[in-house]
Amino acid sequence: MLGRLLILFLCIPLIELGLLILVSQHTGLPFTIALVLITGLLGASLSRSQGLKAWNSVQTELRSGRMPSDSLFDGLMILLAGAFLITPGILTDLVGFSLLTPPFRRILQRYLMKRIGVNLSIQTPSANWTGTSQQTRQPDDDVIDVEFQEHDD
Questions:
Q1: CA-to-CA distance for 146 and 12, rounded, in angstroms?
Q2: Domain boundaries, the chain
Q3: How far is 124 from 65, CA to CA, in rounded Å?
Q4: Rounded to whole angstroms, how far apart are CA atoms 38 and 86?
Q5: Cα–Cα distance between 40 and 85 in angstroms, integer?
């Protein structure tokens, strides 16, 4: 695992540097610098607006008593996209802009859920009853089992 991370942290910057040199040779240095600055600013702006939208979606789902798993995943991917977009480079910009598109995020979410599996255990207290509810969800499972105990005071 450490070897893979080391290769990743060495290879990505070298690939980015090579791509930036290649682009600057074909378009000129001012265009390449402008490209890096514009994609960074545009990416930060898009990440901020989509991040606020995801945050509001999480809040709405929590208020309605639902688990905001999709919204949390979206928020995490948007945060990651912002990090990629403010990093100077062409490859990271492509990955960052891809993460900002909802269809790509859905594909990535399905892939990751199948790859790592999902087993959520949620305990939520409520004002109307004392106890906990436990929900267990498996990948590609549309049924959520819920158990709770209601106590009258």
A1: 45
A2: 22-138
A3: 9
A4: 10
A5: 5
* pLDDT digit string, tens, across residues 77-90: 999 998 888 888 88
Using a cut of 0.70, tell me whether the model's pTM lies above it. Answer: no
Q: How far apart are the first and last CA of the chain?
A: 54
Q: Encode pLDDT of 89-114 as tens digits.
A: 889 999 999 998 989 988 988 888 87
Kindly report the length of the chain: 153
Instruction: Show the 3-state SS of the chain.
Output: CHHHHHHHHHHHHHHHHHHHHHHHHHHCHHHHHHHHHHHHHHHHHHHHHHHHHHHHHHHHHHHCCCCCHHHHHHHHHHHHHHHHHHCCCHHHHHHHHHHCCHHHHHHHHHHHHHHHCCCCCECCCCCCCCCCCEEECCCCCCCCEEECCCCCC
Cβ–Cβ under 8 Å, residues 144 and 131: no
In the prediction, which pLDDT does 133 show?
Answer: 47
User: Exposed, middle or buried by CB within 10 Å (0-12, 13-18, 19+), for 92?
Assistant: buried
